[in-house]
Amino acid sequence: MTVGIEYYVLLSAALFCIGLFGVLTRRNALMFLMSVEIMLNAANINLIAFAFYHGNLSGQVFALFTMALAAAEVAVGLGIILVLYRNFRDVDVTVPSAMRW
């Protein structure tokens, strides 16, 4: 007995909504990055569930590319957070009005 695809889609939608809520309400840059990662993981769940449902591996390959994209996004995001903390002594994304040279 396998789990129906609607459960995976429901789990993915719930995770995506949680991540979207975190992106829209949090002002801490680290929490913002974590919320984006939750949203990317929700997309990965959908990709893998539909790949399993259709019986091919293309969704799993796309999920691997998405994980590589998430790793690059975290590296760039942490660099931006370090610059933000170094210049403003806070990781609140509303503090700087513009990033200057």
Automatic annotation (TrEMBL):
BP GO terms, sorted: ATP synthesis coupled electron transport
One cellular-component annotation, GO: NADH dehydrogenase complex
Residues that span the membrane, as ranges: 6-24, 31-55, 61-85
Superkingdom to which the source organism belongs: Archaea
Protein's membrane topology: Multi-pass membrane protein
Compartment(s) where it occurs, according to its Swiss-Prot or TrEMBL record: Membrane
Alphabetic keyword roster: Membrane, Oxidoreductase, Transmembrane, Transmembrane helix, Transport
Similarity field: Belongs to the complex I subunit 4L family.
Name the record gives this protein: NADH-quinone oxidoreductase subunit NuoK
Organism of origin: Natronoglomus mannanivorans
